[in-house]
Amino acid sequence: MTDLLITGGTLADGTGAALRRADLAVQDGRITEVGDLAGRPAARTMDASGQVVAPGFVDVHTHSDLTLLSGPEAHSAVRQGITTVVVGNCGLGVTPVPADASAHHLEALRAAAGYLDLDPAVRWDWTDLPGYLAALDTARPAVNVAALVAHLPLRAAAVGFGDRPADAAALDRMRGLLGDALAAGAAGVSTGLVYAPVCYAREDELEALGRTAAAYGRLFAWHVRDYADGLLDSVRQALRVAAATGCRTQISHLVAVGRRNHGSVARALELIDAARAAGLDVAFDIYPYLAGNAPLSQLLPAWAQEGGDGPMRARLTEHAVRARVRDEWRDLPNSWDDIAVGGRALPDLAADSGTDPADVALDLVAEHGNAVQMVAGGRSERDLADALTHPAAVIGSDGQALDPGGPTGHGMPHPRSYGCYPRLFAEYVRSGPEGGEGRPTAGNRLGRLGLAEAVRKCTSAAAERAGLTGRGVLRAGTAADIVVFDPARITDRATFAAPQRYPDGIRAVIVGGRAVVEDGAHLGAHADARHGEILRIP
Known about the structure:
Layout: E1 2-7, E2 10-11, E3 20-21, E4 23-27, E5 30-35, E6 42-47, E7 52-55, E8 57-59, H1 67-70, H2 75-78, E9 82-87, H3 103-112, H4 129-139, E10 144-150, H5 151-158, H6 168-183, E11 188-192, H7 203-215, E12 219-223, H8 231-245, E13 248-251, H9 264-277, E14 282-286, E15 292-295, H10 302-305, H11 309-315, H12 319-328, E16 339-341, E17 344-345, H13 346-353, H14 357-368, E18 373-376, H15 381-388, E19 393-395, H16 416-428, E20 429-430, E21 449-450, H17 451-458, H18 460-466, E22 482-485, E23 506-511, E24 514-518, E25 521-522
Helix pairs in contact: 5-6, 6-7, 7-8, 8-9, 9-15, 11-14, 13-14, 17-18
């Protein structure tokens, strides 16, 4: 007897094909049949009439490396339809940690990745990717997890935290550590060229990583060096490395920061189009918001971050250093009004303390280091539309799996962690026949994406970028990771003022053939009710 039969729904199979009426049969965690299955005997039948039945969303860009160990229920992710996440993005990660690493090295590494580290109770007791994945496996997450190898711990292991180039021996060590992780099933490697000590990497170091990724046929994901005035030069650098090494390349969250840079995304897309026409395997991810989220320390010039979190924080207490940083900040692409911490704009925080926004920012980083998160706006709606509708775009939340009732639920996170995918469908997708030029959904700004194409960007296209086979498509033989949603009701409820709200319109989320969310209830409180897999690339 079939374990689960989903009947009466409108199938968006993940390929971008036209929507159609079809039923799904699920057995032993796999889809066994798609078609007219009325009357098929099943242990359970779910009536999806009036609903869209789609593959679970594959989030290629997350920072849930540690939050899934703290809250494996993955509340904020799975409740919005995400069934698979990729961790280790932006060069920020938790492995490798050299087996002979000192306590100081581990402390410095954990501080450098403070953006990921929301629960101090999570222990780092692994040294390599297999050890980290084993820790995830023990936690039994509610979602499937694949991992990129992050540049920051690679460089810290081979070079340290200082501003110096990697010599031949250091490059060999990075290549070896990366190769070991790729052989153990990592989906690829990521860099984050605004974060110390990765910001000190030269192009030969990036090429070494690219060649290693290419040798294994894996992805190289780039948080490029500059998303503001230097966006185009930064994209050119990623494309140069792609051309020199042959690596599959993913540019992370392709945006232009600062009002004076509005329109730069269109020019960056022209560069990407030219590279793709020349045969390079290049794509990018994007999320449907006009503000981003990052460590506040990202605003600091590279010289101020040298040596790691501790030296950076100590440096920012010196009057001469603060004066130099303030001088360099006179030409920031964002105004201080566009930057908020804890849900409040920096000028408002400055008014409370009788100082100015620059001093507030410096004081916060001096006290809390890389753990301080900012929300930065000032982006262009046109840039976002250009990115979302480009054929090489896939959707990635850039968020974290958070538990509002647990240690990861404090503060004012970016609402994308709770509502990225529902927001895409509520605000940027038409809901007409065949996912085409129908009536826009309520609140639709642009109406530029058909429903079937939007599902493709969230599922099969995203899975393909990460090298995940058997995911992101609904057909016989694929994993039974499924989301059932109401196309007329799906919407995000999380806002920048109240970010910890779950979306509306998600009927059910199924991972590995078992419902983990249904009618607003999370069913995975106990580990044996969570069926996420740790995905290793063969």
